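Retro notes
What went well: the complex prediction finally ran end to end.
Inputs used:
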Amino acid sequence: MGEYKFEEYFDQFPPAMAYVPWQNMDKIYEDLDEALQIGTIFPELTKPFTGRRCVK
Amino acid sequence: MKCACSAEQKRLLHDISVVDFVLVEMTLYLDTHPHETDAIDFYNHYCRIKNQLMNEYANKFYPLSLSTCDNYSKEWKWALSPLPWEGAWY
């Protein structure tokens, strides 16, 4: 994998392809108990289900 | 089935679960970022903590894993300790 720089290659990406942005470990939850309840230690991955249809 | 665990036992079990979860998350992260040394340090730090907690639990109560069994005592604690469905887990 080496040093993968997501941004560098952005202009070469062919259209109509799905991309997952690279995760960077810049923040960790302070309270690990809370992280266990939430289900991840990375705030950027916290995607709670809000329980309603997509809003236009 | 309510288990007759002491408060300290529950606290230790909870702490082990929390730290173990951190290790699971970090394993997943390191799988895709194998060269990030600060992430590796972070993992090692919590790995040491987990081992301490597991050993503490094994000394005070009973071994939670075979790797924390002290096989120098006269009895094979692993077989004598309660099983999860016998209330070993809270």
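What we learned: The interface with chain B takes residues 1-3, 23, 25, 28, 32-33, 35-36, 40-42 of chain A (CB under 8 Å).
What to try next: split runs per interface for comparison.
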